[in-house]
């Protein structure tokens, strides 16, 4: 089955984040910043990254929107090196562990995936492209890069019982697979070096379930 990927207009990052904040009830009482400031904040963030010569890759919901429609996200996700954190004191860290950090930049939440994780470093080195957003051109994870990150995370999310994020990530994976039909075996081979045998088997089961879902959708679409 050949499917045409949806035509994408240029994503306006500030608008995506602003809409997500405005329509998320958890922000209504303690909104971190005026939504009117969002365009300037996003501009300031990427200008800062350029000025400090930070080697970053955009991932997460904003990156996904450069390939498919409908994702809602109120933060910006970046892969960066651990050394970059010391060069970005303007991002006030609220949490940090070996592979992840979270911070605030002028009221905007930034989630950082650190290249101390070998898979994140692999995505940074092998699976990037330049996408044109409304604000600027940004180095962004490819479809394969996003799939690697989503599938890598899913076994842990299942163990945590994080039903909401499992559903979100599986939908992201299904949508990318449906429209772009990447080489799944190649993706699994890359994941094999970063997941236990049991987790890799679980990822295979997830992909098989998604393939069956896509097959049913294709049959219904032809009916």
Describe this structure in words.
- The chain has 223 residues and is α+β, with helices and mostly antiparallel strands.
- The chain folds into two domains: 13-141, Beta Polymerase, domain 2 (2-Layer Sandwich); 145-222, no CATH class.
- The protein has nine helices and seven strands, in the order H-H-E-H-E-H-E-E-E-H-E-E-H-H-H-H.
- It has a five-stranded mixed sheet.
- A hairpin with a 4-residue loop joins strand 6 and strand 7.
- Helix 6 packs across helix 8, helix 6 crosses helix 9 (197-222) and helix 7 crosses helix 9 (197-222).
- The protein is globular and about 45 Å long.
- The relative contact order is 0.12.
- The model has no long low-confidence stretch (mean pLDDT 90).
- The tally of helices reads 9
Query: Largest beta sheet, briefly?
Result: 5 strands, mixed
- The strands making up the biggest β-sheet line up spatially as 1-2-5-4-3
Mean model confidence by pLDDT: 90
Order of helices and strands: HHEHEHEEEHEEHHHH
CATH class of the largest domain: Alpha Beta
Backbone CA Rg: 18 Å
Helix content: 40-55%
> How many strand elements?
7
What would CATH call the homologous superfamily of the largest domain? Beta Polymerase, domain 2
Which regions contain 5 or more consecutive residues with pLDDT less than 50?
A: none
Helix and strand content put the structural class at alpha+beta
CATH topology descriptor of the largest domain: Beta Polymerase, domain 2
């Amino acid at each position: 089955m050949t499917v045409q990927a949806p035509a994408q207009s240029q994503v306006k990052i500030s608008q995506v984040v602003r809409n997500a904040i405005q329509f998320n009830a958890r922000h209504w009482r303690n909104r971190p910043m005026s939504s009117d400031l969002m365009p300037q904040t996003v501009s300031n963030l990427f200008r800062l990254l350029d000025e400090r010569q930070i080697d970053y890759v955009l991932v997460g919901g904003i990156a996904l929107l450069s390939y498919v429609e409908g994702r809602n996200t109120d933060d910006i996700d970046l892969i960066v090196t651990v050394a970059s954190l010391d060069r970005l004191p303007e991002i006030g860290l609220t949490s940090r562990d070996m592979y992840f950090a979270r911070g605030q930049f002028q009221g905007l939440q930034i989630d950082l995936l650190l290249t101390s994780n070998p898979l994140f470093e692999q995505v940074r080195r092998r699976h990037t492209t330049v996408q044109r957003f409304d604000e600027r051109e940004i180095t962004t994870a490819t479809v394969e890069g996003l799939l690697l990150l989503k599938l890598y995370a899913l076994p842990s999310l299942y163990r945590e019982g994080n039903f909401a994020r499992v559903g979100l990530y599986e939908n992201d994976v299904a949508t990318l697979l449906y429209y772009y039909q990447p080489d799944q075996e190649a993706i699994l081979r890359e994941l094999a070096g970063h997941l236990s045998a049991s987790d890799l088997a679980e990822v295979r089961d997830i992909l098989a379930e998604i393939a069956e879902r896509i097959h049913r959708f294709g049959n219904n679409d032809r009916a």
